[in-house]
Design a protein that fits this description.
The protein is α+β, with helices and mostly antiparallel strands and 115 residues long. The protein has 4 helices and 3 strands, in the order βββαααα.
């Protein structure tokens, strides 16, 4: 059986003859680790590509996460998935990848503004 791109192994049948499925076959630990590393490298590369644009927005006066997100949307810069619009959370995650210490202060400012 295929569920969301993953295959399950039939391990038996119940009283009515329906199959009982076992654990999802995910591949080896090494393959999963390599996939995680590849995804992290893509995200770090994307954050590095966005850094000059975000810095320019900050220098232009966009200090809040929402303002930066609005600036990225105005410039029609696609999100990582290429669909939808930028949100404050996405901007915060990009900033965390660029500099975790700066992002922590931005997150605390965002929380204080939301309260």
């Amino acid at each position: 059986m295929k569920l969301g791109g993953r295959r399950r192994k039939i391990i038996g049948e119940d009283d009515k003859g329906k199959p009982i499925y076992g654990k999802v076959a995910n591949g080896s630990d090494a393959a999963r680790a390599a996939a995680v590393r590849a995804a992290q490298e893509r995200a770090e590369g994307r954050a590095a590509d966005l850094a000059p644009t975000i810095k320019a927005l900050q220098e232009a006066g966009a200090t809040s996460l929402r303002a930066i997100a609005a600036g990225l949307n105005e410039q029609a810069i696609p999100t990582a998935r290429g669909q939808g619009e930028w949100s404050a959370v996405q901007v915060m995650r990009v900033l965390e990848r660029l500099d975790p210490f700066v992002a922590e202060s931005s997150a605390s400012e965002a929380n204080s503004l939301a309260a």
